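Methods — Computational structure assignment.
A single polypeptide chain was analysed. Its primary sequence is given first, followed by the predicted tertiary structure written as structure tokens.
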Amino acid sequence: TWSLRLQGLPCVVTRCRCLLPLRRAAARSLITRATATFSGNVKQSVIRASIGLDVPARRAANIPSPPDADRDFAVSGSNASDNGDAGAMTASEVPAGLPPVQIDKKTEAGLEEMVRARPGAKQQARRCTGCGAWLHSNNPEEHGFIPLNARTQFSESGLKKIKKEPMGEPVDWVPYGVEVQRDDSSKYKILTRHVLCQRCYRLQHYHRLDAPVSGGFYRMEGGRDWEHEAEIVEKIVRRMRKASLVLMVVDIMDFESSMVPELFDACMSRQFPVLVVVNKVDCLPISNRDKEKKLERVKTWVRRMSRQIRNVPVSDVILVSGKNAYGLKALEERLRYHLDPSEPKWIYVAGRVNAGKSTFINRFLWHVGYKHLGTVHYKRTVGGVTRSAVPGTTLHFVSFPLSKGFRLVDTPGIPSRSQITSRLTEGIDLYSVVAHRRLNPISYTLHSGRSFLIGCMARIDQVSGPVTFMSGFFNLEVTLHVCQIGKVEGLLDRKAASFLYPPHNRETYEKLGPLVRHRLEVFGSSDRAWDDIVISGLGWVAVAGYGTKELDVWVPHGVKVFRRPSLMPNEMRNKGITRFHANHRARTPSIFRKKQAMVRERRDKALRDALRVEQAQIEA
């Protein structure tokens, strides 16, 4: 009788995924009652087999499979919920996915199978590993698009094995006396690739974004775009699981803009422990001599600069590098304090766009020995979670199950319209602006009536005051130039996007619009800098030279300018003043080749468009 009642369970409560709580409660209740009625492992196996829970037991008892069992019970934790998309879930459900399942067949394997999926069954890859978007082959303008012919190259689980063969022809034997050289290098090892959408593939392999895609996590209710960053913060925090841990990633290269007070306050209001991870310390121009001492001074500077960070214990502020794994051991030791193996938690990595969250995720998974990320080239930024200089690369929650029930979740970045990167659309411009390796600051002399040009996006004019020693902390692909203030307009009209860049093309430069002036007064010393002038999303300059100076900072409309205590005050004293030369920065043959390729591509595109129009007129 019990067997007949339980056998009807799959056809009653497992038809719809929305009935997941009911299905779970009903199965738990029936299993408990059945276990209390029947005694013995054999009878319990018969019960589990009759409701379609235990496949081996069902086969041993010669019980046929229930109708639509495969379809009804195929609730994949890795595809349907692991990536953290809440979908149409209610507030009582877990918004970012279900917890990982540790199946023990000795206890109640059937119940766990019904709630998740049968262990060992291959699940179809439905999400992009790089950005978390749902994969499809319908609309190329939507996120998650993958061509159908590219999707068929991967297995159902979204994996592909690649083995590079050496050049030449294989032979069965080698004549006696012929020397045989063995190559055991890693270039011939088998590579494992995860399925990626077309957008992530181009970002990883070509560092370009041909056309921005629409939608993603930044699409609000009703299909509208976000208006204020607080909406994205609320949307991210609302989907975080209760009793979780938050790693707030801050970019030391753009500290003021990457600090998100709304995110910190929202996490504290929900009683989430927050660890502040200060990323990209490898980009600071710090030598190996007394490196730890200098980084401790940087940590002290970070705590003094932010009220939110001052409210966090000093041990919860960790300096790390997602590129070379610096500081991950200290982070791991701090996580031991906040995490209990008996109470698994979800660890969310949140922060501003371009703060290095995805790079940190890939390196942290490598540090803890995660084996299911595929082959990742950390220097080439190929494989794993997509990391690029394009703001908003991660479009959805991307989660990774760890041991003992813990889970690491990468979240979409919080956008900002006050950063200069929000004004750029070309991949070459974004990769030129965002810092990704150690900076090489250069100090120039600036007198009254002179201007310091930073690419063709910003400039700093000295209006009055004594001589100024200005050290520029910008990416190596950004050109720097010094000229008279009266010649700036004519120089930009003639040399913008050709001699002064980024941006690298004239159209993007014209889209920036006229620059807006911000007047500042700064004070300097003869042997060190006391003040920094920060341009949001671009970099900063350290101002030295005795006396008070009056400076005009020209930036595109909406880009924020900050004045702060100097982060690296002794660069002028350490390296001295450099006499200006036009070929010091960013004017290398490789960059010129890239610019020539851009010109050819645009010329060919204009020619193709003209031919299409001519052909259309002939056909008409």
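Note: Residues 589-619 form the longest helix (31 residues).
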